[in-house]
């Protein structure tokens, strides 16, 4: 049986192990990172040889399946919340379960840049980027871009972004952190 201090550190140890094996435990050290559909998570039950760690892609509906538990919603939860929920459900079958979870790929944390940019398309936010960074990743505006008329569509809201103001160091509050599903439109 392992010392309590070692058991308490298992999620961090899992992330370190993943990194040493060439994985990309991108969100492991970000306790506030929320899991998204399309993200890959490594799930394991400590000290149970029958339930080896397995990498699971979170389904488009935000759910994943795990033995004994069945299906549960992972999207919108951070790693700690998901771990607590899984351990609570596993207590029916395993005494003192210790679940280890590591986000190995953040494929579901995506924003889009469309319109008059050099490289329009989806951007995987790893784990987060602001508007200016998204424009940079999209190769900047092309010669026809109206950089002072950029908008971000976030659900039913529209956020304005004036490139000349932000690039001059003014009105920096416009340069918001993008959220999954945001669409940056460069007319």
Question: How does this model look, in words?
Answer:
This protein is of the alpha+beta class. It has 2 domains: 4-105, wza like domain (wza like fold, 2-Layer Sandwich); 110-186, Outer membrane lipoprotein wza fold like (Roll). It is 21% helix and 26% strand. The protein has 5 helices and 10 strands, in the order ααββββαβββαββαβ. Strands 7-6-10-8-9 form a 5-stranded mixed β-sheet, covered by helices on one side. A 3-stranded antiparallel β-sheet has the order 2-1-5. Strand 6 and strand 7 form a beta hairpin. The longest helix has 12 residues, at 79-90. The chain is elongated. It starts with a helix and ends with a strand. 28% of the residues are buried.
Terminus-to-terminus distance = 61 Å
What general form does the structure show?
elongated
- CATH superfamily of the largest domain, please? wza like domain
Count the strands? 10
CATH topology of the largest domain: wza like fold
How helical, in percent, are the residues?
10-25%
């Amino acid at each position: 049986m392992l010392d309590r201090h070692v058991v308490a550190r298992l999620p961090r140890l899992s992330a370190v192990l993943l990194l040493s094996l060439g994985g990309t435990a991108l969100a492991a050290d970000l306790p506030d990172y929320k899991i998204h559909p399309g993200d890959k998570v490594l799930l394991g039950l400590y000290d149970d040889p029958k339930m080896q760690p397995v990498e699971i892609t979170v389904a488009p509906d935000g759910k994943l399946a795990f033995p004994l538990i069945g299906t549960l919603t992972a999207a919108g939860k951070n790693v700690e919340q998901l771990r607590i929920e899984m351990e609570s459900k596993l207590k029916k079958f395993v005494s003192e379960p210790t679940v280890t979870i590591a986000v190995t790929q953040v494929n579901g944390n995506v924003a889009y840049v469309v319109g008059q940019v050099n490289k329009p398309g989806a951007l995987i936010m790893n784990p987060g980027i602001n508007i200016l960074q998204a424009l940079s990743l999209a190769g900047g505006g092309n010669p026809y871009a109206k950089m002072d008329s950029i908008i971000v569509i976030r659900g039913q809201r529209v956020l304005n972004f004036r490139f000349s103001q932000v690039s001059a160091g003014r009105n920096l509050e416009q340069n918001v952190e993008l959220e999954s599903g945001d669409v940056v439109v460069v007319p």
